Amino acid sequence: MFRRTAEKPAAQLCEKLKVEFTFHFQLFTVEDYIDLQGGKRLKTVGLLIVLVCGGLLIYGTSDFPGWGDPSSPASNYLSPRYIEKTMEETSVPNIVTAVLADYRGYDTMFETAVVFSAAIACFFLLRVFKSDEADETRYYRHIPSGVTLRIEKGGRLPKGSAEFERIDTSWVPHDLIIKATTRLIIPFIQIFALYVIAHGHHSPGGGFQGGVILGAAVILFAVTRDLRTTIQRMGEKICALFCAAGVFLYAGTGFLCLLLGKNYLDYSALAGILGVDPVTARSHGILVVEIGVGLSVMAAIIWIYYNLSSAGKHDEGL
Amino acid sequence: MSQNFPALIIVVPLLSAFIISAAGWLNKKLCFPIAVMALGMSLYSAVGLMGMVLESGVIEYHLGGWTPPWGIAYNVDHLNGLVLIVIFLVALLNLIANKRTVEEEFPEKTGAFYTLYILFVTGLSGMVITGDAFNLYVLLEITSLTGYALIGIGKDRGALSSLNYLLMGTIGASLYLLGIGYLYLATGSLNMADLASILPKLYESKMVLFAYAFCLTGLFVKMAFFPLHAWLPNAYSYAPSMSSSLIAPLTTKVMIYVMIRITLSVFTPQFSFDTLNISGPIVWMAVIAIVTGSLLALSQKSLKKILAYVVVAEVGYMVGGFWLGNRAGMTGAILHIVNDAMMTLCIFLAAGTILYKTKGDSFDYLKGLFKKMPFSMAAFVIGAMSIIGVPPTCGFFSKWYLISGGIAAGHYGFVAALLFSSLVNVVLFFRIIEICYYEPFTDHHHHEKEETSFDEAPAGMVIPLLMAAVLLIVLGIYSGDIVTHIIEFAIPGEIT
Lengths: 318, 496
Description:
By secondary structure, chain A is mainly α. Chain A is built from 13 helices and three strands, in the order αααααααβββαααααα. Chain A folds into four domains: 2-62; 65-90, no CATH class; 97-130 and 174-309, no CATH class; 136-173, no CATH class.
């Protein structure tokens, strides 16, 4: 039994972060990899190859069009139509959004699927389902006295006692300031994220950015409390279902267009359902898929965080 | 509905992947039927598409209703119609064969496995059907990412070999992307047909040369073309059987398809074969790939490693055959994409079935297998015959075209390499077959067993395996039709 106090919480948090990060990076650096594959001679050979290839690449740039050249093929061929016609064809003021989610919306759908695949892959590779819960050393805080208890393997606390709270092995002080601050900040982060998603038509933003901000809000909560509390609020199953539902919303919208008789992802088919003209329907269609992207990205980020931070145990983490 | 086949073929499995992922959390039993239905639907669409292409020529589909080059278009012609059928056939057979192993191996992650599986197949087929060079990259990303996960779950050194693959694969994909970036810089377009019409004016440009070099190198890494093959043997042999029998038949073959597509449809044959004049060195590299791949296969001590090196040698067949630059060689390469996918499936499925029963794949475990698992071994023998190139299995016919292409081009090094590799394969597979047939089964503690009893894998595994084996013979019988009705039209007329 011992007591841990909350001295210099910020410094300790930094220290903890550093420890965690160096640990993760040292797991497998490139140098280890090269050593593993066969010694330091490779480094010299590698350097030579890099130099030769770099030289070739620089030689290859001699034909490049000038920097920002208005007569270069890239700015002359497809861009004029995007710039001149986007508003009248899709009624979206933000050209980037229109190219991303409409002209080349099919690519973006698969980019969202890439995010989804990453989340699923993390879960598939890392998640460990543990049956026995009492096979590890655990720490508890006795709430009234603030004493920290260490329970060895197989040990148990008195059942049904509300006086103890589980804390992480590495470091969990009383952190009133941090908790109160995040409690204040998180709702605003989330509202801002919704704004970013919804306002992708008019200003920089969209589903990917908004989704990441939404996810970051939950991760901030997890960093300032602990992983278990976060998972109680937003479970793994919810993450998994949201993650799939978001991309499904995107791909399903496209499929709906197909069912309504137009080509896949041709949002103008939605005009009948939405009760607007075909051009405005494109703009609304983009909003729908952006919401899908936001949902999916948020859930993916959180789900990946759960699995990475706790090495798949969903027990203790950063 | 049939006019939407090009979209359905990709979208149905994509949507199903998300449904499977949800079903994995709600009702695990639904995952497998949904996966089978999705792949079955896609196979149906692929066959339908092929029929339409045979009837009326190239089919174009505009996604989002935007005409290329502003939007993304799908182009289905004879070449990718054929490859699409192969992809879904292989994926479906393997899925059905491995139902039991998946449920036993990943009881809690069945949903995730099937999701990754279907996404992997979606990615591959999307790469094949697309007419947009950047869309191809996006789907390559999906394929790679899911592929890494499917391999990384393997036991022992699965994770390490997957990391190895990830590093190499990412470099390869980045090189391809860089190449596409250069092309965009030079032309401002991403649509393949559009690029092909703009590029002839720019053949002297260094940008185009570098773009081609980047694309080709990236694809060589991805297809494990010697000497860029180092990631493949470990990745394929440490992957769990159900993943390796999906990934080994399809990944390298689809990457070879992409190479053919980029070379023929984006950069015209005139540029690739005449202006650049790189076909000679590439064919010689293929010769080295075939010879070293075969020799390395000969030096391996476990079944899956041997098969993995055979895949490396086979990549050399197809790359070399294609770069011979004549009609027979290209016919051989394209036919070999089909045949090699089927025979790699057959042989990896057989290996998976054997592993499922013996729990180990070094030679000691293989003794007495003919008595123990006669059906699986029969399929294994047919697969081996096809890889060696014994008629009437399909392997013979594509090898025939490849060899006649080599003779027509006067490239006797390539012909010699093919014959050498066939001989090595004979030694390789007959050594295995000999162990399985003649040496009596002994268990771990070297107690001689009295009688090796019949102990075949479950019917659910053996029947798809036998179907794959029978398909090898059927493909062999019909390979003349495939060549005259499909592959003839897949190769541009200017190649003689």
